[in-house]
Amino acid sequence: MGARAAFAIAAIIGIVVTSTGTSAREVVPFEGRVSAGTVVIKTAERRLYYVRGNGTALRYRVAVGKPGKQWFGEARIDGKYVRPAWSPPAEVKRDNPRLPDVIPGGASNNPMGARALTLDLDEYAIHGTNRPSSIGTYASYGCIRMLNEDIVHLYDQVSVGTRVVVVP
Description:
Elements: H1 2-7, E1 8-9, E2 25-29, E3 39-42, E4 47-51, E5 56-61, E6 64-65, E7 73-82, E8 85-86, H2 90-95, E9 115-119, E10 125-127, E11 138-140, E12 144-145, H3 148-157, E13 163-167
Parallel strand pairs: 3-13, 6-11, 10-12
Antiparallel strand pairs: 1-8, 2-5, 3-4, 4-5, 7-9, 7-13, 9-10
């Protein structure tokens, strides 16, 4: 687990948030050349699509990487965490040296939010946020941020091994 342990230290069991009308998800038509169960992130749209396979996808508003921090390509989900602790990656720590080495899961200053889906690519994840106002913006160091209600929903839909495709 190594670097992954430094990135997302798993967790205390959280509570599932029920719909409050603040969700950013909706069912939309989807015509892409990807199989059902694939997560597609369209960076320019700041949208994540969970492909359902019946010509539709669940679409979520997300925050994506800042210019110069974005990445494109394929990854797979390699871990699922509930209320994960967070250790800032080296680049984040360099830019923000006052950050603690670890922020406990559930802490109000923990940027990982209610759930995290770690990816098998560098130290990236799809995760909740403690900054819901960042959703729909270019805000991160390459991670994909979702409203906590939406990451809880997506977390329940996907499994370890799920394909993730990030496009411009």
